[in-house]
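Incident log, structure service

09:12 report received: a user says their structure output differs between two submissions of the same chain.
09:20 pulled the input from the user's history:
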Amino acid sequence: MTNKENLNELQVNLSNFSNGVNQFFYHPLYKTIQYSDGVKYFFENAGNGAYWFLTLIATEIKPKLLSDDFYFIELKVNEDKTAKITVQRDKGQPVLFEKELKFTDCPYSEASYMFYFDYYKEQQTLILPSEY
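09:34 re-ran on a clean worker, output below:
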Protein backbone atom coordinates (compact mmCIF):
# COMPACT_ATOMS: atom_id res chain seq x y z
CA MET A 1 0.00 0.00 0.00
CA THR A 2 1.24 3.46 -0.80
CA ASN A 3 1.49 6.24 1.76
CA LYS A 4 -1.56 7.96 0.19
CA GLU A 5 -3.63 4.80 0.70
CA ASN A 6 -2.68 4.73 4.40
CA LEU A 7 -3.69 8.34 5.02
CA ASN A 8 -7.20 7.57 6.22
CA GLU A 9 -6.49 4.21 7.89
CA LEU A 10 -7.05 5.60 11.39
CA GLN A 11 -10.35 7.20 10.31
CA VAL A 12 -11.52 3.89 8.81
CA ASN A 13 -10.61 1.99 11.97
CA LEU A 14 -12.37 4.58 14.16
CA SER A 15 -15.55 4.19 12.11
CA ASN A 16 -15.68 0.55 13.21
CA PHE A 17 -16.57 1.70 16.71
CA SER A 18 -20.32 2.06 16.43
CA ASN A 19 -23.68 1.24 17.99
CA GLY A 20 -22.91 2.39 21.49
CA VAL A 21 -20.03 2.09 23.90
CA ASN A 22 -18.77 -1.26 25.14
CA GLN A 23 -16.60 0.08 27.94
CA PHE A 24 -15.50 3.35 29.53
CA PHE A 25 -11.97 4.11 30.66
CA TYR A 26 -10.41 6.67 32.99
CA HIS A 27 -6.97 8.22 32.99
CA PRO A 28 -5.45 8.25 36.50
CA LEU A 29 -4.77 12.00 36.29
CA TYR A 30 -8.20 13.00 34.96
CA LYS A 31 -10.68 10.81 36.82
CA THR A 32 -13.68 13.04 36.10
CA ILE A 33 -13.39 12.37 32.36
CA GLN A 34 -14.43 8.95 31.15
CA TYR A 35 -13.80 7.96 27.55
CA SER A 36 -15.07 5.22 25.28
CA ASP A 37 -13.22 2.29 23.78
CA GLY A 38 -13.20 4.11 20.43
CA VAL A 39 -11.55 7.17 21.98
CA LYS A 40 -9.09 4.87 23.75
CA TYR A 41 -8.24 3.38 20.36
CA PHE A 42 -7.60 6.91 19.04
CA PHE A 43 -5.39 7.77 22.05
CA GLU A 44 -3.33 4.59 21.54
CA ASN A 45 -3.06 4.64 17.74
CA ALA A 46 -2.93 8.25 16.57
CA GLY A 47 0.73 8.79 15.74
CA ASN A 48 2.90 7.62 18.62
CA GLY A 49 -0.04 7.96 20.98
CA ALA A 50 -2.41 10.85 21.56
CA TYR A 51 -3.04 10.95 25.29
CA TRP A 52 -1.81 14.55 24.93
CA PHE A 53 -5.25 15.25 23.46
CA LEU A 54 -6.93 14.15 26.72
CA THR A 55 -4.51 16.33 28.69
CA LEU A 56 -5.39 19.30 26.48
CA ILE A 57 -9.12 18.66 26.98
CA ALA A 58 -8.74 18.37 30.75
CA THR A 59 -6.40 21.32 31.28
CA GLU A 60 -7.22 23.83 28.53
CA ILE A 61 -10.64 23.10 27.04
CA LYS A 62 -12.74 21.92 30.00
CA PRO A 63 -12.02 24.96 32.22
CA LYS A 64 -13.28 27.30 29.47
CA LEU A 65 -16.60 25.50 28.90
CA LEU A 66 -19.92 25.93 30.60
CA SER A 67 -20.91 22.85 32.53
CA ASP A 68 -23.96 20.71 31.89
CA ASP A 69 -23.87 20.84 28.13
CA PHE A 70 -22.87 18.83 25.08
CA TYR A 71 -19.94 19.91 22.91
CA PHE A 72 -18.34 19.00 19.59
CA ILE A 73 -14.55 18.82 19.59
CA GLU A 74 -12.88 18.78 16.20
CA LEU A 75 -9.23 17.99 15.52
CA LYS A 76 -8.21 18.92 11.98
CA VAL A 77 -4.75 17.62 11.04
CA ASN A 78 -3.11 19.14 7.98
CA GLU A 79 -0.67 17.48 5.58
CA ASP A 80 2.18 19.63 6.96
CA LYS A 81 1.61 18.09 10.45
CA THR A 82 0.07 21.27 11.86
CA ALA A 83 -3.40 20.98 13.40
CA LYS A 84 -6.31 22.98 14.72
CA ILE A 85 -8.67 22.12 17.56
CA THR A 86 -12.07 23.78 17.79
CA VAL A 87 -14.94 23.35 20.22
CA GLN A 88 -18.56 24.29 19.53
CA ARG A 89 -21.93 23.47 21.07
CA ASP A 90 -23.17 22.50 17.62
CA LYS A 91 -22.03 22.85 14.04
CA GLY A 92 -22.59 26.41 12.86
CA GLN A 93 -22.56 27.73 16.44
CA PRO A 94 -19.88 30.14 17.71
CA VAL A 95 -16.47 28.63 18.41
CA LEU A 96 -15.97 28.42 22.19
CA PHE A 97 -12.34 27.28 22.09
CA GLU A 98 -9.73 27.24 19.36
CA LYS A 99 -6.10 26.20 19.40
CA GLU A 100 -3.52 25.97 16.63
CA LEU A 101 -0.89 23.25 16.98
CA LYS A 102 2.46 23.83 15.28
CA PHE A 103 3.14 20.09 15.15
CA THR A 104 1.40 16.79 15.76
CA ASP A 105 2.33 13.22 14.89
CA CYS A 106 -1.38 12.45 14.60
CA PRO A 107 -1.96 11.19 11.05
CA TYR A 108 -3.29 13.52 8.39
CA SER A 109 -6.85 12.79 7.32
CA GLU A 110 -9.03 14.45 4.72
CA ALA A 111 -11.83 14.46 7.29
CA SER A 112 -11.44 15.93 10.76
CA TYR A 113 -11.32 13.74 13.82
CA MET A 114 -14.57 14.44 15.66
CA PHE A 115 -15.46 13.83 19.30
CA TYR A 116 -18.52 14.42 21.45
CA PHE A 117 -17.89 15.78 24.94
CA ASP A 118 -20.77 15.54 27.38
CA TYR A 119 -20.06 17.83 30.30
CA TYR A 120 -22.44 16.80 33.08
CA LYS A 121 -21.70 17.95 36.63
CA GLU A 122 -18.76 16.03 38.10
CA GLN A 123 -18.61 13.42 35.33
CA GLN A 124 -17.67 14.20 31.75
CA THR A 125 -17.76 11.74 28.86
CA LEU A 126 -15.75 11.74 25.63
CA ILE A 127 -16.96 9.51 22.79
CA LEU A 128 -16.75 9.19 19.02
CA PRO A 129 -19.80 10.32 17.03
CA SER A 130 -20.18 6.78 15.65
CA GLU A 131 -20.54 5.46 19.22
CA TYR A 132 -23.41 7.80 20.09
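09:41 both user submissions now match this output. Likely a transient worker issue. Closing.
09:42 reviewer note: Confidence is low (pLDDT under 50) at residues 1-5. Residues 35 and 126 are 5 Å apart (CA to CA).
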